[in-house]
Every structure is written in C-alpha cells, then in structure tokens.
Specification:
single chain; 397 residues; alpha/beta; FAD/NAD(P)-binding domain; Alpha-Beta Plaits; 3 domains; eight-stranded mixed sheet; 12 helices; 16 strands; binds flavin-adenine dinucleotide
C-alpha cells in the first residue's frame, strides 16, 4: 500500500506556497506540493501586492525578491471626477511569472518537496486518508489535502457542488507606459456602459503597465463586451490596445457561507474566494495559507481531522472579516439596478470613505474594525445626496 503523507497541497501559487511555508513554521515536514504547471508559469493578474500582502509574506518568512514597482498613490476616477489618495504604505506591483516562481523557490529552499507538471485529477476521501490520482496515473494518499488549486479547484468542486452566483470576470493585458506615471489608476467610468466593476492601470517596474477590467456578476457581460469596455476606457487615457487582446479569467467572490472545509480537506486562496469588491486575492491567498497551515498542523497533533472550526476561524480572522465587508460593499456598489449611482456618489466621490479604504489597502487599518465609522460616514453622506448627485452628473456630462 502507498505510504500516507501528512499533507498534500494541490497548487503552488501564493495560497499553496503560503500554506507550505506555514506548515514548515509549525514543524510539519511530510508535505508535498503539487502543481500541474511548470514554473515559471504565467497567471493573468494585476500583480498589485497591498500592505496586507507584505505583512502576510513577512509572517510566513517569505520575501518579495523580484522586481516590483512601488506605487504610493491611487487615482480613483469616475468621468471627469478624480481623487488622488495617498497610501501610507505602497502597493508593490509585480509580474506573477516572477513572483510565483520566487515563492516556489523559497519554499523548496526550506526543504519542502514541490512536484510540478503534476495535475491532481480525482480525489477520494476515505476513513484514514484522502487518495489522489494524478495525470501520470500515480496514486497518492494523504492525511490532509489542501486545495490551493485556484478558481477551477477540484477540492472546491467537491465541497461546493453548484454555484448560485456566477464568477467575477477579469481581463488583463500589458501595455506601454501610461501618462498616469507611477500612480495606480482605478477608473469606474465604464460603469456607465454596464460594467459592474472598474478598469485599472498599474505601473510595472520596467516602465510598462498592466491594464484590465473586473466585472462583478450582478449582470451578464460577455467577453467581447468587457474587452470593448477595456479598449474604450483606455482610449480615454490615450492608450491604444494591441489587437492581440486581453486575457480573461474567472474568479469566485468570497461568500461566508460557501463551504471551505470538510473532513481531511481545506481550501485556501481562490479556491475559497477572492475579494468581491476589488478582485484582490494575493494577500487573501497568503493569509488563508497561514490559517490552513495552522489548522492542518493542529489536526496532525490532535488526530481530529474534521476541520469543524476552520470555516469559523476563516470568517472571524481579519481576512474573513475584510472579505465579508467588501462583499457587502460590492453588492451595493455593483448592483444591477440604478441604485449603483448613489453608491458611486457615496463611496467613490467621498474623501473620508476613500481615506478609510486606502488605510485598509495599505494594511494600516482593519476596515472591518472601523465598520461603525464607515457606516456613519456613509449615512451622513446619504443625507447630502442632492449635492452629490449634481457632482455625479457634472462628472459624466
Ligand atoms: C486579471 C486578474 C487580475 C488580478 N489582479 C490582482 C491584483 O492586482 N492583486 C491581487 O492581490 N490579486 C489579483 N487577482 C487575484 C489573484 O490573481 C488571485 O487571487 C491569486 O492568484 C490567488 O492565488 P492562488 O494560489 O489561490 O491561486 P492561483 O494563483 O491560481 O494558483 C493555483 C495553482 O494551482 C494549480 N492547479 C490548478 N488545478 C490544479 C490541479 N488539479 N492539480 C495541480 N495543480 C493545479 C495551478 O497551476 C496554479 O499554479 C487578479 C486576478 C485576475 C484574474
């Protein structure tokens, strides 16, 4: 009979590397990380590492060891309205090809076995172990399997079955430098054309930039429509997209009631859900990795592999509370009906709300702890809606 490993982590992206690093910190040595790709591998992404991602890397003993462009200002736009928000700590923009390969190298340097070109195709949960079948036909067994296998996660599929809300859709492409220089651009203007999300432009270390759109699934938008919004939106910034076009990728928005664990199985990162408001997921993946690593180490120590507390721990951790607050904000700002305009006026045109959000991005504040302040600010602004509406109308005319 095949030997039973302690932990198999499926996926060597930030969630898988983060989980492996945490298991190593907790003294768990019998860990195998699998990935169907060979590194360096690409992953469509804006590559923005927030202050929270920097903290999560530190806590895991991992380093940002690749070229990165620090950006200390976010420009938030809607029509002609623009507000620049200073970030107390910069967002570092990386290329995922470099970043993920560097994390894998760092984890391997700790002595963790990482097997690439190995796709997990099927899993079967038994009484004492989970059996995995790989694309090579090889069978593996583990006491615990961690699904760090991204949006198409086989572990997530096993836990969730059908989905109620469709996935977020994101498109990204690299372009020559932008006139906006080193600032990060978040442009919500395409919401007028039906986007429920925003267009971004993030500067890269070599002077180029990555640009993209994110669409929240409150309405249906097809790929050509989203690409058109990206193209037209960038044309307003004087950027012409190459005909090769942007690459699309789906992502599941985090929902606190979506299953994230079952006996002997955990999910982390995109397999558990991204930030529904921003589409941010790298910090989330690294923070989930810490929580999953701790849970797996505890299960091995106690022999209790049910993971009954994991969903609650994830929900109550800073990462879960921030994801839940952003889920609430996203459902309002990106709603299908006309109410979204009011929320653009309340949340995007408001200096206090943007300052609060900037502190969350920088990682200097936990926004979920400031919920009352946020709600009070939103309520105060609600009463000034007439003036806000005039500002909004002026911005789009
Ligand atoms: C266009 C776009 C822009 C984004 N911009 C940002 C941003 O600016 N900042 C930010 O923080 N987040 C951003 N995100 C989100 C971010 O990319 C993800 O949240 C992040 O990659 C999640 O990491 P992960 O490790 O969970 O998943 P992934 O990075 O997707 O890694 C999953 C790994 O699992 C492997 N795998 C999958 N299935 C199997 C299998 N069956 N067997 C073996 N291996 C498998 C894959 O090869 C992959 O390496 C963006 C996402 C998109 C799509």
């Amino acid at each position: 009979m095949a030997r039973i490993r302690d932990v198999v982590v499926i996926g060597a992206g930030p969630a898988g590397a983060g989980t492996a690093a945490r298991l190593h910190q907790r003294g768990v040595r019998d860990v195998l990380v699998l990935d169907r790709s060979r590194f360096p591998r690409d992953k469509p992404c804006g590559g923005g590492l927030t202050g929270r991602a920097a903290d999560a890397l530190d806590e895991l003993g991992l380093r940002l060891a690749v070229p990165h462009a620090p950006s200390g200002v976010a420009r938030v736009r809607f029509g002609t309205f623009e507000r620049a928000v200073a970030l107390a700590r910069p967002v570092n923009v990386i290329r995922r090809t470099d970043f993920d390969a560097s994390l894998v190298e760092q984890v391997e340097a700790l002595g963790v076995e990482v097997r690439t070109g190995a796709r997990a195709e099927a899993l079967d949960v038994g009484r004492d172990a989970v059996s995995l079948r790989l694309n090579s036909g090889e069978e593996l067994s583990a006491r615990i399997v961690v699904g760090a296998d991204g949006v198409g996660s086989i572990v997530r599929k096993r836990l969730c079955g059908g989905q109620r809300l469709g996935p977020h859709r994101l498109f990204v492409q690299e372009v020559e430098a932008l006139a906006s220089g080193r600032a990060m651009l978040y442009d919500f203007t395409p919401m007028r054309e039906g986007l429920r999300g925003y267009l971004w432009a993030f500067p890269l270390a070599d002077g180029r930039a990555n640009v993209g759109v994110m669409h929240y699934p409150s309405t249906r938008q097809d790929g050509p429509g989203l690409r058109r919004m990206l193209r037209d939106g960038l044309a307003r910034h004087g950027v012409e997209l190459s005909p090769r076009g942007a690459r699309g990728w789906p992502a599941w928005g985090y929902h606190p009631r979506a299953p994230v664990a079952a006996p002997r199985m955990l999910t982390v990162g995109d397999a558990a859900g991204i930030d529904a408001l921003t589409g941010e997921g790298i910090a989330v993946a690294l923070e989930h990795g810490q929580i999953a690593g701790d849970a797996a180490a505890r299960a091995l120590a106690t022999g209790d592999f049910r993971f009954a507390d994991y969903p609650r721990t994830l929900r109550h951790a800073v990462v879960g509370r921030e994801l839940n607050l952003d889920r609430w904000l996203a459902a309002r700002l990106y709603q299908a009906g006309p109410g979204w305009q009011r929320w653009v006026g309340l949340a995007l045109l408001d200096a206090d709300v943007l300052e609060l959000y900037a502190a969350r991005v920088a990682g200097t504040e936990v926004l979920a702890d400031q919920k009352l302040r946020l709600l009070q600010t939103l309520a105060r602004r609600w009463t000034q809606w007439r003036r806000r509406r005039l500002e909004l109308e002026a911005a789009v005319s």
